[in-house]
Structures are given as structure tokens and as C-alpha cells.
Amino acid sequence: MIPRRSTARVTVQKVRDGQTRPRQDVLAVEEPLEIRLAYEEAGRRVEQSTSVTMRTPGDDFELAAGFLFSEDIVQNRDQIQQISYCLDSSIEEQQYNIVRVRLRPGVHFDPDRLLRHFYTTSSCGVCGKASLEALQLRSCPVLPEDRPVISEEMAHGLPEKLRRAQSVFEKTGGLHAAALFDALGNFISLREDVGRHNAVDKLVGQQLLAGRLPLYDDLMVVSGRASFEIVQKALVAGIPMLVAVGAPSSLSVELAREFGMTLLGFVRDGSFNIYAGAQRVKFTISAKSTKFVKPA
After folding, report:
1. Partners of 229 in the β-ladder
2. Rounded to whole angstroms, how far apart are CA atoms 239 and 63?
């Protein structure tokens, strides 16, 4: 078996000044990944498909772990016995596109949690996402009110630090990224994917498998917009601050305010908006330099 690659070369026609010529271009690979859950029920082994997502190959085990954690199917790394690729010889061509997560014996899994077969795409995330009211019923980490605190100057510099760490984006220009930083702006880790929600799942899955959750002292930076799903995934990982280069949605702002998370958006070109949790941003000069959105 040959592992899937995160980039692929294709021949294109480059057009410039009315002239065309062939050239090699590097693209981000997009392939389906099926996540299967294996567990024991009434003394017998059961295997169930939980999700199919379009992703960029790489860090697939972290993606699976992060997805199952964010959907509350597993609550900690100790519940996971093994993560592996499916080695069924009858599906050899897709072996690196199917991941099996085996729960430890004795770990109870309620199939009713999977109200339906999740299907995610690279553009929108899980369709029919749980409402804010449903999320409020879930046991989420209580975020610390007083940390982390970052300076206005540090916030301005985070997107560039994110950009410099994006190795695959540098080659293709076609991937989203999610990265962790500490309160001093020190880079911790980064994951890339064609789907913004997958990038976050990979990052959270990495931290879950490393035993670092909850991430009370860190902040997450994402290269795109801050959707409800991105804020939700940060929340369940115990991340008190989310910094987005793009815009948030109305529901993501509501979610951040409800659970005490700091949410910064449009962090670029020397300015940013604070949509929630302004107490975690320290101003070194004047607050006038920042577009502060007063909470409703």
C-alpha cells in the first residue's frame, strides 16, 4: 500500500499576455475519509460507520480522534484502544481512506448518539448541525475567566505567524489551517486541510491523543472564517480564545458569548473586531485602534 499524498502535480495551461504555455502546478489533494467506530455490545463486536468527510490526506488518525471527541462520541483518549487504517483486501484501493477507531472493552457507546449517518464536505462541515440549545445540554469545559490574556500587538501578529507555518499552503495556496499558540504568542502546533473543520479536528485530535486537553492556557488561530462549528470544536477542547482571519457567523458569536469564550474576527491589515470576551485582550496604546464590538 502506498500512503496518500497531501499534494498532487498536474499539467495546466498558463495564460499570460494572450499567450498560453504548459506548466506544472501543485494542488492540494482532496479525497474521502470514512471513519468507522468498533466497539463491544452485548458481548459481540460491532463496527459502525460514523462519518464520511472530504479531506486532505495526512494526520488521518488525529482527524478521526478529533471528530469523535468534538461529537462527544469519546470523552478522553483512554477510551480509544487503537486507531488504524482498514486492511480489508477487498477494498485495497481505499485502504488509506478508511480509518477504524476501536474503543476499549467496557467503554459504553450509545448508538443513538449518531442520530443519522454524518456526511461532511470540505466546504460546510456537518450538515444539520446541533442547535445552540442542544449544545448547552452537553457537558462542556468551564473556561477560565482570566486567561489567557494577550496584547493587542500580539493579536495583530498571529495571522502572519500562522501563514509562515503553513507548509502545504505554501506549495498549493489551497488549504485552511488551524494553529495553537500560547499566551505569549509562541507557536505550539498547526494542522492543514482542504476543509476548515477538518483542520480543527486534526489539531484537537492531536492534542487529545497527546493528553493535553483541555487547553485552558492556549488560543487557536484559524485561517478562514469562524463558523458555529469551529467555535463549538474550540469550546469542547477547552480553548478560551479563538482568533479568525475571516468573519464569524451570528450563531458563532452567540455561542462564544454564552460560554465565555473570546472571539476575534477580521484579524488582518492592522485591525480586528472583538465579538466576545474583551477581558482577555490587553491594550498597549489606545482602544481606538481596535474595532470593538460591544456585546449586546
Report:
1. none
2. 18
Q: What is the mean pLDDT of the chain?
A: 85
Using CA atoms, how far apart are residues 76 and 197, in angstroms rounded to an integer? 20
The interaxial angle of helices 250-259 and 228-236, nearest 10 deg, is: 20
Beta partners for residue 180, in sequence order: 189, 220
CATH topology of domain 31-131: Ubiquitin-like (UB roll) (3.10.20)
Cα 274 → chain centroid: 21
Separation between Cα atoms, residue 243 and residue 257, nearest integer Å: 14
The residues, ordered by sequence, that sit 6+ positions from 296 with a Cβ below 8 Å of its Cβ are none
pLDDT of residue 173: 63
Distance of alpha carbon 52 from alpha carbon 282, whole angstroms: 42
- Across-strand partners of 8? 27
Verify whether residue 140 is a known catalytic residue. no
**pLDDT attached to residue 68:** 95
Task: Give the CA angle between residues 97, 168, 2 to the nearest 5°.
Answer: 35
Q: Tell me if 11 sits within 8 A of 24, measured CB to CB.
A: yes
Query: Average pLDDT for residues 63-81, to the nearest whole number?
Result: 94
Spot the catalytic one: 86, 124, 127, 140: 124
Looking at the predicted structure, is the pLDDT value of residue 67 above 80?
yes
Partners of 15 in the β-ladder: 20
Superfamily of chain region 150-292: Cytidine Deaminase, domain 2 (3.40.140.10)
What DSSP character marks residue 76? S
Q: What are the φ/ψ torsions at residue 177 (nearest 5 degrees)?
A: -140, 150
Q: What is the pLDDT of residues 170-201, one digit of tens each?
A: 565 668 999 999 999 999 999 999 999 999 99
Q: Helix, strand or coil for residue 66?
A: helix
In this prediction the pTM is 0.85
Every domain of the chain and the residues it spans: 31-131, 150-292
Phi, psi of 126 (to 5 degrees): -70, 125
